[in-house]
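re: ur question from the group chat, yeah i did fold both. here u go
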Amino acid sequence: MKKNTKVKSIIGIAYLSFALLLFQSITVFSQGKNNGLYPIVKDGKYSFIDKYGKVVFDVENRCGTFSNGMAFFIDNTLNKIGFIDTTGKIVVQPAYVTAVPFYEELSAVNVNGKWGFIDKKGTVVIEPHYAFAFRFCEGLCRVKESTSLHSKWGFIDKKGNWVIKPEFDNAGDFSEGMALVEKDGKYGYINKAGELIIKPIYDYGAILMREGYNFYEEGKFSHGLAAVLVKGKWGYIDKTGKMIIAPAFDYAGNFSKDMANVAVNEKYGYINRQGKIVIPLQYSLADIFSEGLAAVHTGPITDGKWGFIDKTGKMVIEPTLGGGGVSTDPYAFKNGVLFTMFEGQKWGYINTKGDIIWKHE
């Protein structure tokens, strides 16, 4: 049983057009703080713009978005990945075939098929010997030493020391001091000491990954609650494991402050922390609230459009957008800016009023 694959696959299709156009081999539009700078391509030249659409600086290579003050680029000659800072200066030379955006001052990089970590100067701080590694969250990173089916997941600190020994079949990032883990096909939650605070009794937790990146992760604790699956229905528990919202949904997203996106019979809407439906289940898809707005999909999944509603359910940006969310992110505004797709496979950025900041022609 899979959770929210329909949402992510539709969004992913729109994102792929952008990824192929701008990043080619890179398929991650990094989440995290973007420093108010956004990559564009115009007349074959690469630049970064601000939230008003003004070019801040030009760059020589294809670049990703900023995360933690750093943006990756692909060297046109070497076809390797390096990093620039917010002035456009190269601070990590292009040396990697694959790299994860910076989180908590470190980036996971792949060297000869093994993952390690570098700092913002490009210095290797954790030697590459992991089969899989993700990003640091709350000071810990989930890693796996082997591709063997019998290999387990554990957590290391920023010096590469094991903090939680590898004993889990799967593991998610830490959020609010808890991490989702899998043991023997069941899911529960651990604390930073590796203690099973909530025993693995639940049927499913959404932890997926592809090529070293976090593809998506839901079921993590957000604003004190986490979605869990019980006998085919989703509900929400608190950090003691107490069921706060009874399992009644076919899909349940992470809470964003006081609201979460849910679905019943393939219709999506929003509930509050008491489990009451506050925005009717009427959309074909819906994403989380961010900066007071949430993306909702109207019409058939295959040819409908995305718009944005506020917390009263009012449509504030009409459903004319083609999507644009990404593998690690919800389709959501950040610092008042959203990457999106327009008609005719055009891509660009809009503000929270729906005004186009910049559009690729």
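okk and heres the other one u asked abt
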Amino acid sequence: MIYPLVTDLAAYGVPVAVTCRVLGFSKQGYYRWRASPVSERDWIVAHLVNAALDIHADDPAFGYRFIADELPGKGITAGENRVQRLCRDHGIWSVFSKKRGLNRRPGPPVHDDLVERDSTAAAANELWLTDITEHPTVEGKLYLCAVKDVYSGRIVGYSMDSRMKSSLAVAALENAAPARNPAGTVVHSDRGSQFRSRRFVESLRHHGLTGSMGRVGVGASADNAAMEAFFSLLQKNILDRQRWLTRQDLRLAITTWIERTYHRRRRQRRLGKLTPIEYETINRTALTAAQEPESTQAGAVPYRIARAALTRLFEPGDRVGRALVGRLGAYAALRLATGAQLVYAIPEVTVEELSEALRRWAPRSTRRKT
């Protein structure tokens, strides 16, 4: 806008007509602007640019196409070409843009690096890793964000979407936090825009989690090696086996593989040849048994009777239940069985059911004579 220059020169005694003639516009246009300095069009453009800046600040991965899709949600209607022109004029670019001359380095970390490539944990919910991967289908790409507990290797939360937005990472975190009820858990990620977004940082704060970010850029495998190892397994077991036609088919296959195969069937040597759920269940039970006072133990029940009863209470194919009896002993398994709520593969067993099982399965020689 060059009209303010005419006003400034007029203050120094330069006639308006002379300035307008030299600059190449009419006096009528200048006086029309002076009567109304901010036109309705400028007002609309200013609101549109402010909305685009807010959308881009929420998720820096958004380019002009995604911004144009989000504008109707803010009550603004604008064509894609117009949004592209305004974004270009105001320097609003996606962090993944391939425009020449742009700085494609990852943005500054919003958290300190609390892990420093030491992906080990001594207890569940001590350290979580999170990352995003993409998988192609004929219909288009499907993006997966997963949250992994380093202690057992279990995928405690995940989400999938057709777009790699900040809501993808937030949904995975919201999926993990209520189920695990963590307190002070460190959540480590790379410096991707989804994990630096305002919404993700607020979600961490809401659930009492501590953020951590690597010192290197996006996609650095050495900085998040445990998460990359899981994605490599997923690639071999799901993606490389066939060509996927729709996102829904791939979504179902990924969910089935995680919940049925990876969590419950795939044994890991670092876990003592146990699955992630078996490892968590056994160690949680052992910790509970160690913390209980001696007076609560079922010492009045003979060991071999309790062992035989518990072995028959669990289903024949229930490896978790039999592993509990074999590794922890009958008394610890007995306390677990009567502990009311068992989340994974072990059925809930009441005291009455256990007493009936003991009475039915106890050897005749050990039964008390009446």
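fwiw on the second one: The longest helix spans residues 40-58. The chain has a mean pLDDT of 75. idk if thats what u expected
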